[in-house]
Amino acid sequence: MTPEVLAAVLARIPYVAHLGVRAELHGDEMTAVLPYSEHLIGNPMLPALHGGVIGGFMELTAVIQLSLQSGDGAPKPIDVTVEYLRSGRPRDTFARAEVKKVGRRIANVQVEAWQEARAKPIAALRGHFLLAART
Amino acid sequence: MSHTEPLPQSWIEQLRALAPAMMAASPYARALGAELGEVERGVALLRLPYQEAFIGDPSTGVIAGGVVTALLDQTCGYAVWSALDQFAPIATLDLRIDYMRPARPREPLQARAECYKLGRAIAFVRGLAFETDPGDPVAAAQGVFVLRGKKAGAELRGRTSPPAKTTVKADGELEGAATNSSLPEDPQ
To answer: Hey, how many other C-beta atoms are within 10 angstroms of the C-beta on A46?
Structure first.
C-alpha cells in the first residue's frame, strides 16, 4: 500500500478525523501520529489526554498496521488491554504497532505510544484482532 | 423517605449534581458527549448518543472500538468516584476491553460499571456497554484505577456500615447497592 492509498483509506473513516490521526509510512514501517488538539484533553487540571483517546489511538494504530500487512478489509478488535504508564501531556503523541502473530483468522498485536522519547512510552496495548475473511 | 427533615447532602447526591460540570470541564468528555444516568454507591451508568464522527467502519456505520473504550473508561471512572466519600483525582492504570459484537449503528450506547473493590490506593472496576439490554453486551471492561488524593484511603466495605447509620433511611437504595458492589467472593 502506498502512502497515498493509505491516506485515502483513512480519509474515509470519520473516527480518524474525530481524533485527528494520520499515518506516516516509511518503507514497511508505519508511525501513527496523534497531533495535539485541545479537544483530546480528558483531565483539564493536569492537563492530560483522555485515557479513552490514548486507548482508541493505539487500537487504530493496530488496525492500520494490520490492514497494511493483510490488506483485505478492516480487522476487528476481539480484546485489547491498555496499560497506562505515564499521563499523556498536551503534545503530539506517536504510536507504532508490532504484529506478533498472524494466523488464518486472528492476529496478535502490540502497540506502544510515546511523546517526547520512544524509550519513555506513555501507554501500551496488547490485543487480538479478527481478520476479514479472505474471498 | 417519609421524614421531611433535610439530611446533609450525601456524596452520591453531590456527585450527581457535579457530574454535568465535571463533564463540561473535560474537553474530551464534551466531545464524546456521554451523560451520567443513574449513579449509586459504587455503580455508575452513562449514556452516549450516536455520532457520525464515531464511525470506524464507513461501510456499515459501526462506531470505532476506541469510542467504546472511551465510554467504558469514563464510566469506570465514575463508578470509582461513586465508591469514594469525596472527590479525589483518579487515573486509569489498566483497562481490558472484550468486544463481543459491533454496536448497532445510529443507536445510543450505554455503559454500566461497578467498583467492586476499593482499596487505599487502588480501585477494581468492571463494566458492560450495551444499547438497551445488559444481557446482550457490545463490550465488557475490566479496569484498575489509581487513587491519587491524600484521603483516598477509606475502604468501601468499612465505610458503608456504622457511620452511615443516620442516612440509611434516606439512602436505603444506595446502602444496599454498596453492599452488593463489594461482594467478598469477587475475584481480584
So the answer is: 14
| A93, β-bridge pairs | A34
pLDDT in tens, B110-151: 999 999 999 999 999 999 999 999 999 999 999 999 998 655
* Number of domains present in the structure of chain A: 1
Q: Give the number of domains in chain B.
A: 1
> What amino acid occupies position B118?
L
Coil, strand or helix: which one is B91?
Answer: strand
* More confident call, A43 vs A78: A78
> Is the CB of B94 less than 8 angstroms away from the CB of A82?
yes
CB pairs under 8 A between A and B: 125
Asked if the interface predicted TM-score (ipTM) of this complex is over 0.90, the answer is yes
- Minimal Cα distance from A20: which residue of B? B53
Provide the 3-class DSSP secondary structure of residue B163.
Answer: helix
Helix axis angle for A51-70 and B65-83, nearest 10°, is 150
Q: What is the CATH number of the domain that holds A81?
A: 3.10.129.10
